[in-house]
Design brief:
By secondary structure, the chain is α/β, with parallel strands linked by helices. It has 2 domains: 4-262 and 444-503, Alkaline Phosphatase, subunit A (3-Layer(aba) Sandwich); 267-435, no CATH class. Helices cover 35% and strands 15% of the residues. It is built from 19 helices and 21 strands. The chain has helices at 14-21, 27-35, 49-58, 62-65, 92-98, 140-147, 163-190, 202-214, 230-248, 271-277, 289-296, 299-308, 311-315, 319-328, 362-376, 395-398, 471-478, 510-513, 529-541, and strands spanning 4-9, 37-42, 71-73, 79-81, 103-106, 119-122, 135-136, 195-200, 253-257, 261-264, 267-269, 343-345, 352-354, 389-394, 410-414, 419-420, 433-434, 442-445, 447-453, 461-462, 466-467. Strands 1, 2, 5, 6, 7, 8, 9, 19, 20 and 21 form a 10-stranded mixed sheet that branches. Helix 7 packs parallel to helix 9 and helix 8 (202-214) runs antiparallel to helix 9 (230-248). The chain is globular. The two termini are 42 Å apart.
Length: 545
């Protein structure tokens, strides 16, 4: 079996690929579909990058690797960022490294801080800044920054509803994709890698903010000639990258995947407000008057106006001022009365957790969950008047493993994931529904893409029922490494030609490398506070918290 290159296209979906193929816009996507194997790749619930990419690289569900959202709440109700260190299991490239296969891992989400592997690693947008140690080996960082002075971790501009901000963000997203491609190709040419991977976030980021210019059915649709083809341009850019990689590495097998698909985004849903209205959540008595004022005057409007005039960009330069604004003027989890609250929501898609310090028996727990679920399905979609909640799950229906206790008790699908929540601004509006604070009009769907192409790949084969958990065991199978019993995925044998054979297994150097896979507690300190603030700022700008 030949070397593998995985190209991750964050947010890419067949719904748009098929649409754009009609205009003959994506010749290399077409080439892979006609000359390789392809199909939808069902992602995790929720269809969110932290749990999806972590499930891809481990072959396991969130109940085993422990990462569900960008952040989690510690025992003191403080927000803590998930990183590669809180993922409580081995990653794909660690299995490969143990078996002496050389790897190049570039910009894969949630790989910061970088792990020691047999090869090279450059971490992703959760890296605090280029001042952090974002490469393995460490000296690779200086090599990249010296050769590419314009290299950045993530976009520095922010989308806002004014022409200048729209253009700045548009230009920077595309420029950043080009820079990453150049660095990746340069690293690929320096050595021979058995396994290589790069993730581009271009498609995901333009879909979040330019969806309404393409989608005529969206309530916020704007027929703006300058931006109506932004998403098409992103797919064409990805197609160009695919074509160049296929041409430069003709003897490699290429796998194209995404962590989720793309679709519309309509409203923020303030689930904690709903829980408060239903008598499940309570705020502390005697809240400061200024917090009451910001809550009553709809803080989300102030946040949006601040973004639109560039005020937040100024505030971001002063971390102490920013923290004071967030914690002293807005209601936070610290303002919840935890002695009376039995249920609360935390996370991007509004999952609900039960306060087990109050609800202690299994009988009470079952009664409470049943009561909440019955009331949830009565919430109406403000656009259609139909029930908003398409599906309600208990965590044992979706997840299993040693980290099951970290998963939410109730998981919901609001409008096919076209509605989301906020972990940071949990009481930014008095209402259950509010306008997106960061002007988002696009978001995620559960069906991503799987496209496989190369000398060992079956031609024109449609792959059915593939899941994101299947990629890691399939890669291990390619390299003749036994698939661990605790992986949830299966080997996608149907994508290979009948006469293709796995690679000959190399001699392991596990003892030599002495990789440490000790389980870590989720609240283990692994980031400096200033670094966590930088990452938190970036995730807020992207609309994830």
């Amino acid at each position: 079996m030949r070397p593998i290159i995985i190209i991750g296209l964050d947010g890419a979906g067949f719904n748009l690929i098929e649409l754009f193929l009609r205009g003959n816009n994506l010749p290399n996507f077409r080439k892979i579909i006609t000359g390789g194997s392809f199909g939808q790749l069902k992602t995790t619930i929720p269809p969110l990058s932290p749990c999806a990419w972590s499930s891809f690289m481990t072959g396991k569900n969130p109940g085993k690797h422990g990462i569900y959202d960008f952040y989690y709440l510690d025992d003191n109700h403080n927000m803590k960022l998930h990183t590669s260190k809180t993922r409580n299991t081995k990653d794909l490239w660690e299995y490969l490294s143990e078996n002496n296969y050389k790897c190049l891992v570039f910009n894969v989400p949630f790989t910061y801080p970088p792990k020691k592997i047999n090869g090279l690693m450059v971490t992703d947008f959760t890296t605090p800044s280029t001042k952090a140690d974002f490469t393995y080996p460490p000296q690779l960082k200086n090599e990249i920054l010296q050769k590419y002075a314009d290299y950045k971790i993530s976009e520095e501009s922010k989308y806002a509803e004014n022409p200048r901000a729209k253009r700045e963000f548009f230009n920077e997203v595309f420029e950043l994709a080009d820079i990453r491609f150049k660095v990746f190709i340069n690293l690929m040419r320096k050595d021979r890698f058995d396994f290589s991977m790069i993730v581009f976030t271009l498609i995901d980021h333009v879909q979040h903010w330019y969806w309404k210019y393409m989608d005529k059915t969206h309530p916020k649709h704007k027929d703006d000639k300058e931006f109506r083809e932004t998403i098409l341009k992103a797919y064409k850019k990805a197609d160009k990258f695919l074509g160049e990689i296929m041409q430069m590495f003709p003897n490699h097998n290429i796998i194209v995947i995404s962590d989720h698909g793309g679709g519309p985004y309509y409203k923020d849903v303030n689930i904690n407000n709903w829980l408060m209205q239903q008598g499940y959540l309570f705020l502390k008595h005697n809240q400061p008057i200024h917090k009451k004022i910001t809550y009553n005057i709809e803080a989300n409007r102030l946040i949006s106006k601040g973004l639109n005039i560039g005020l937040w960009k100024i505030i971001n330069r002063f971390p102490r001022v920013k923290r004071a604004i967030q914690t002293k003027t807005l209601l936070t989890y610290k303002d919840i009365d935890w002695d009376r609250t039995v249920a609360y929501s935390y996370g991007y898609y509004g999952p609900i957790y039960i306060n087990r310090k109050i609800i202690k028996t299994e009988e009470k727990l079952r009664e409470l969950k049943t009561d909440i679920k019955k009331k949830l399905i009565k919430i109406k979609d403000p656009h259609t008047g139909k029930p908003l909640i398409k599906k309600v799950w208990e965590k044992t229906e979706l997840y299993s493993g040693t980290k099951l206790e970290l998963m939410p008790d109730i998981v919901i699908n609001m409008g096919n994931f076209a509605y989301g929540a906020s972990s940071t601004f949990l009481f930014s509006s008095r209402n259950i529904f509010s306008e997106p604070k960061t002007f988002k009009s696009g978001d995620h769907t559960q069906n991503g893409i799987l496209m496989v192409y190369g000398p060992d790949i079956a031609n024109g084969k449609r792959v059915k029922n593939a899941q994101i958990y299947d990629i890691a065991p399939t890669i291990l199978h390619i390299f003749n490494i036994p698939v661990p019993n605790d992986m949830d995925g299966k080997v996608l044998k149907e994508v290979f030609k009948e006469n293709s054979k796995p690679a000959r297994r190399k001699i392991t150097f596990q003892e030599e490398t002495k990789l440490n896979y000790e389980k870590r507690k989720p609240d283990e300190k692994h980031l400096e506070k200033k670094d966590e603030e930088k990452i938190k700022k970036r995730l807020k700008a992207l609309g994830y918290i």
